[in-house]
Amino acid sequence: MAKENCIISLQGVRKVFGNTAVVEDFNLDITKGEFVTFLGPSGCGKTTTLRMIAGFETPTEGKILLNGEDITKIPPYKRPINTVFQRYALFPHLDVYDNVAFGLKLKKIPYEKTDKNGNKITKLRHLTNEEIDKKVAKALKVVDLDELENRDISTLSGGQQQRVAIARAIVNEPEILLLDEPLGALDLKMRKEMQLELKEMHRKLGITFIYVTHDQEEALTMSDTIVIMKNGEIQQVGTPIDIYNEPVNAYVADFIGESNIYNATMVGKKQVRFLNHAFDCVDDFPLNEKVDVVVRPEDVILTKVNAESKEDLCGRIDTKIFKGVHYEYVIMVGKNEVTVQDTKERNIGDIVKIEIEPENIQIMKKEVTANIYTDAWINNKNQVMISEFPFEADVTQILPGSQIDEEGYLVGKDGKKYDLNDADVIAEVGLNDLGISDIEDEKCLSGVIVDTVYKGDHYQVMVRTEQDEEFIFETAYTWNVNDIVWITIPKEKIKLTLKGDIKKYVKED
Amino acid sequence: MVKKIFGQIYIWLILLLMYLPVLVLIAFSFTEATNVGEWSGFTFDLYPALFQDDAIMRALGNTILVAFISALVATLLGTLGAVGTFYSKKRTKKLIEGTTQISIVNAEIVIAFSLTVMFVFLGTYVFKDYIFSFWTLLIGHVVLALPFVYTSVKPKLQQMDPSMYEAALDLGAKPSTALTKVVLPEILPGILSGFLLSITLSLDDFIITAFTRGSGLLSGAGKIETLSTLVQAKIKKGPIPVEMRALTTIIFLLVVTGVIVISIYRNKKENAAKVRKGRVNA
Amino acid sequence: MSKKTSGVNRNFFHFQRKYLAFPYAVFLILFVIIPILIIVFYAFTAEEIRPDGSIVTVFPRVESFVNFFSNWSKINVLFVSIFIALQTTLLCLLIGYPLAYFLADKKVNKNAVLVTLFVAPMWINFVLRTGATRDLLTWMNINGGNAPYLATLIGMVQNYLPFVILPLYTTMLKLDKSQIEAAADLGANPVQVFFKSILPQSVPGIVSACTMTFMPTMSSYVISDTLSEGKITLFGNYINLEFSNKAWNDGSFMALIMLAIIGISMLLTSNTGEKEESRGAGLW
Predict the structure, then answer these.
(1) Is the pLDDT at A120 greater than 70, yes or no?
(2) CA-to-CA distance for C243 and B117, rounded, in angstroms?
(3) Could you tell me if C154 and C44 lie in one domain?
């Protein structure tokens, strides 16, 4: 199962604290000498995974193999793995030398000895003082602290303490060095310096580094392999370049680098529609498939508007920030924002033409589980507007325990009034919650069936409205493409989430 | 300015009033008159007399022995208790902490009386014998000091970086080694102050001693007499025995020396801290 | 299922650490919890003489309860004790509060050693100290013969003042200076500054000072015995008397009343942050 040269292998690892699983089905093989980074937001399980490798936590399920041997239940002091802790965890009662020598003084090494009968036997002995001296000096040299060995820990700066922590770990010549957000406490400049130094150290020592961070830039700069985690699960494993250029899903794309992410639909052979515009692309997905599209800000090309061509995608510059090498613009295309990095200076309010090279459109498969409308909003009758059509909805679900008063304001438990008119919301409707009818009804939203897919025991049918909004529903019956249908949604089936803080909408009396 | 002068006068006045009885006793330790306030000529005779008084010397010896032994036991138990509880589950922690709180706020006389009743009960129904001895006295003093050791050690554990213990394990230390080489040095100041506090409480104690003592130590077959019980027996009948004035002088000098030592130690620590700060900035 | 996972979850090296508390817990159970349970048991037990002359202990009985509440002198002693304890606490606060304030004020006192000096009497034997006070007061003609109450009160204040100074001083050091300055800046006169800013901020210290004085004053009997020459009897004296008379049942009931008072005062003070820990912590 484990691949060649694999030093550590996590197999089906799961960790549960109380009732919550913090790590779920974690499978990973790490090659000898690799620099692997676990990247994710806080609470994604990356530190817990590291602690399981170190031996501070035991997996609830699964196995951890080191060089093919099961170490799942081996205590930390018997593992050839050392850790650099987040807040260093140096021993304040010892000086720099004794901190670094701590592990060496405990270590026993085998040696051969001839006993009385002339047989060679192997015994264990502690390291001699000279051996310890030599190793400590070497380790301190690696971290550039050879002058400070007699200093007290409390007299060192944060960066120096960091180096002692590294020296203390590498002096034991571990097969794997674990680093738990080691640069988190340093200031930006120190952090950049240490990043390069760590990378250099990794090259020189030739051992495996497993690094935990929430800083995507740190991960991109230093790692051979990045493991992106979310809610205890691995999202993607790959080289920094792979992960940047070909994120497997919107989450990864969003986490790594800046990006524009849109809901999109395949509208033709290698053609994808988003921003109300059809783009050529290089990925071939089935027609009418719902997908996520990622476009990096540096890949959006801005040009002058060509008055003659009505086919062009245009937008208005909304904000402008000078970033040194380039400007960062936010361009409004309808209700959508496009973030663009461009070296040319433009003015706010300018209308520009937007182009994207086909190879710069990264298309990611999306599992449709519900109809999600991210640009819905609430009108003055407390109806939710989807595809410019008002649907009755229960807006009290936005604020638990609230109700609507006779004037139509939302009243919270604390008596505060909220005016939800024009509030932007995300509306979610389940695939089985749409009512579809082929009988004309002026009070309903109408659309054309553009696609039906047979899913074994039911059909997944897609309806497109005049406003190019799509509704997907599941049904046991057959519908014909190009039929016109009318859509109803039961009031209680629309799930609403407010964009931004409800405090924005407090009605001042 | 007015505030400063008034404040200083107030401070020194109260200080004088607090020490006045002891100072008067010290002054009259240089005369042999029975009552404080009578002067029968200057003499040092009370000092050699003090050291020849077997009863006082025995009581002093007992007091010191009980204080040291009980402080040692309390410090050991209390430290282990604080460390163990710190790493226990929430519920165990709450239970132990609650009980510790109870014995801190409990009145000395209730501690003394309840222990005595228990010892009587045990003596009557279990051992079928009179069980009051050095051991019951020791238990009494340990009960008195134990919660204070616990509360001295606990904050040191809380201040400690929790990864420190893990770091030790990570570097190859067995749990026992990690505790003695990393956790112990970290909480040592708390342990020491707990020990000193135990000694103070034991030296000063009267009620628990009076209730729980039996025969033993330097008192042999007689009831263990400590300084507290001895002095109490004497002052019930009349003024403080003349030799004890000399003893007061000696104790006072020891306390003053203690205060001086502490303040020198504090100054040193502060200075060291200042030097450190300077270095970090440089 | 959940049981099974918790078994696997348990960390092998956590095991040993928490078991260190075992002897401590056992000691507390044996010599704190069980003695309290025993006095509860004894408080509601009585000894009965059988016709054949043998003595048996019977539970549950309310003799001790009746003995206490039918004996007016015992109830009187309870009230006198509470009264003296309140007076002592109040006097100690009145003297100790300004003292702690001045000690903590850098403009008045720059010397931290002074604070140690105020606490140092605790290291001179308590009984010896009490005797010294008595001898001095006798010399000044304030004795058990002519002023037992005054003598007792002086002795109490003398003895418990250090217990008040320490917690008050610790809270005074932590006073938010900018809040006091802000109050003055906003036009409060010194009296208003004191009542609106300084006093509210020092409440935790006052509470812990009170708990450290009130209960010991009620329960200690050496001071009242010595200074009033036996003329003033406090609750502690009575319990001591029951001890001397080996009246375990009546004594237990009185100890139980003490415990109840302690429990009530604990409940009253439990919501003010400052814990008893400052009692020991500041000493060293």
Answers:
(1) yes
(2) 9
(3) no
Percent with pLDDT over 70 in chain A:
97
CA-to-CA separations, A97 to A137, A150, A155, B180, in angstroms, rounded: 9, 6, 14, 19
**Cα–Cα distance, A339 to A341 (Å, whole number):** 7
Q: What is the pLDDT of residue C242?
A: 86
3-class DSSP state of C179: helix
Neighbour subunits, C (≥3 Cβ pairs < 8 A): A, B
**What is the complex's ipTM, to 2 decimals?**
0.87
A297-349: pLDDT as tens digits: 999 998 888 776 677 888 899 999 988 888 999 998 887 889 999 988 888 98
Name every chain B residue with its beta carbon within 8 A of the beta carbon of C118: 14-15, 18
Question: Do C39 and B117 make contact, defined as CB atoms within 8 angstroms?
Answer: yes
Question: Is B197 part of a structural domain of the chain?
Answer: yes
Helix (H) or strand (E) holding C49: strand C46-49
Give the position of tokens 């000529």. Answer: B41
Q: How does residue C15 score in pLDDT terms, banded at 50, 70 and 90?
A: low
- A92 vs B173: CB contact, 8 Å cut-off? no
Whether the pLDDT of residue B34 is over 90: the answer is no
Confidence of residue A165 (pLDDT cuts 50, 70, 90): very high
Tell whether B210 is covered by a domain.
yes
Mean pLDDT is highest, among A400-404, A455-459, B214-218, B254-258, for: B254-258
DSSP one-letter code for A178: E
> Looking at the structure, do residues C20 and C49 belong to the same domain, yes or no?
yes
The beta-carbon neighbor of B280 closest among A81, A92, A157 is A157
Parallel, antiparallel, or unpaired: how do β-strands A176-180 and A208-213 relate?
parallel
| Domains, in order of start, for chain A | 6-245 (3.40.50.300), 259-365 (2.40.50.140), 370-505 (2.40.50.140)
- Looking at residue C94, which CATH number applies to its domain? 1.10.3720.10
Tokens of A361: 């459109």
Per the structure, the count of domains in chain C is: 2
Q: Which chain B residues are within 8 Å of C280, Cβ to Cβ?
A: 148, 151-152, 193-194, 197
Secondary structure of residue B104 in the 3-state scheme: helix
Rounded CA Rg of chain A = 30
C76 shares a domain with C54: no
CATH of the domain at B82: 1.10.3720.10
pLDDT higher than 50, residue A172: yes
Bridge partners of C256, per DSSP, are: none
Which residue range is the domain that position C247 belongs to?
72-281
- State which H helix or E strand residue A327 sits in: strand A327-333
Q: Nearest residue on chain A to B174, judged by CA atoms?
A: A77
Chains in contact with chain B (at least 3 beta-carbon pairs closer than 8 A): A, C
List the single residue in B161, B177, B279 with the smallest CB-CB distance to A155.
Answer: B279
Question: Do residue C32 and residue C96 come from a single domain?
Answer: no
By the 10 Å C-beta count (0-12 exposed, 13-18 middle, 19+ buried), B91 is classed as exposed
Exposure pattern of B141-158 as b/e (b: 16+ CB <10 Å)? bbbbbbbbbbbbbbebbe
CA dihedral defined by B163, B168, B173, B177, rounded to 10 degrees?
Answer: -90
Q: Is C133 on the interface with B (CB under 8 A)?
A: yes
Q: What is the pLDDT of residue A199?
A: 92
Give the end of a domain, one of C34, C58, C82: C58
